Amino acid sequence: MDTGSHLLFGATLAGLAFVFPAVSSDPQLAAAALTVSLVGSHAPDLDSVTRLFGNDVYLKLHRSYSHSVAAWPLWAVAIGSLAAWAWGAGEHWALLCGVALAAVVLHVAFDYTNAYGVQSLLPFNKEWHHLDALVLTDPFLVFIHAGAVMISLSNGLADPALPCGVAWAVSIVYIGWRALHHRLIVRRIRRRFRRWRAVHVLPGLWWYRWQYVVQTDTGHEMGEISGRRILPSESLPFGESHACIEATRNASSVRTLLGYAKRQHASWTSLPGGGYRVTWTDLRFWRPGKLPYRAEVWLDDQFNVRRECIGWHKKAWEAPYV
């Protein structure tokens, strides 16, 4: 999820903490609970500091160790202890650590619902895990949780546990429904393409919109789903390998992409002044007519790497929403 959504969920989690009598009866402890909830809801994304070392390093480390199960208790203890000291609430240290832990775990859980996914089982397993059920900023969840915050503020925080609890209950049901809907869409695509080898379905911004990538024996089929209509868009046959493609496999940007790409695809072009440009992409993140997430490597005629880059080539409001 995006930063704004994570912080919004942190605010409603803090409201839910009012179910504890100690929190609801002590404004200072309530402020401490809000602090750890907001900080914990954002803490795993502090890996964004790796942008200082380049986009390649950031993409390699984002949603990895800082989101892993091994980091959860570390975040919780660090955030809870600092808040207990700052707010003079040492006797409620365990409660604050518990709220911080819940915030961190929920952050990772929401990221898991996205198509980009998380390496949540590091260092035990390097696999990327993703549910492919929600977009990066889900309008329905934002509406539900923003409504809970506004109701709580309009009541002067008299009983925020009720509206925030309702928001979380609705969210759980909603995410379950989206996950089930995704499975049904995947089943439809598999029936449509009988010779499928792999199927990926990513959610659109609206409930009835999805996009798919199907790997077959001969290549990849890409398209969209609108309601009950399956709308094929592009066919991408497997291309023949070339020496320039093989020469880029050890490039840093390519190794980063291949570290989590599920349906990688490479293409190349000869440059007018000599040399080659090789483009690698993860086809899951296609959009009509474009491959917005890619690693590009420029080579000379002897296949020496001259320049490379990796990243997104799209606006934040453009598909895919990951």
Automatic annotation (TrEMBL):
Keywords per UniProt: Hydrolase, Membrane, Transmembrane, Transmembrane helix
GO MF annotation list: hydrolase activity
A Pfam short name: YdjM
Membrane listed as a keyword: yes
Transmembrane regions listed in the UniProt entry: 6-23, 69-87, 93-112, 133-153, 165-186
Highest taxon listed in the record's lineage: Bacteria
PANTHER family: HYPOTHETICAL MEMBRANE SPANNING PROTEIN, MEMBRANE-BOUND METAL-DEPENDENT HYDROLASE
Name of the protein in question: Metal-dependent hydrolase
Species annotation: Cohnella endophytica
